[in-house]
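U., I forgot to send this yesterday:
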Amino acid sequence: MCPKKKQRKTFLIVVDDSSELNAALNFACKRAINTSGKVALFHAVELSDFHHFASIAELMEIEARSEAEKLIQRVAADVQKQTKQMPVLFLRQGKTIEQLLHLINEEKDIAVLVLGARMGEEGPGPIVTAVSGQLAGKISLPVTIIPGNLTVDEIEALT
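Result:
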């Protein structure tokens, strides 16, 4: 009988420019280090609804993709600094929630979705709201929601 091959855990982070991203990222990096896992970064570039002038819509999409690439590379550098390994990068085109669901269903190495929750009156953020609402029961893996105001020390204590 062959010994079971232990699968590495991949912690998926949805990358955006929110302040709560840092807490989710720090948590995922610490968990990846402590479990000999890895971090994956996901970002979706939403398509332009500017159909009347195709050339302007195309330029807007090129600019949006360029900005997304810069953002995901900046976050990837932070992950590499914390974990000493390059994260897996997923840059998709389309609606964020739809593309996130497709990715989770396609990539069987993803073990946990880690999200940062915005603190305050405006609510936890659109993805956290969707995951706990319309997507509840549609995501086939554990979701960890990290309060966006946790400090590095508090995250260290949790992991």
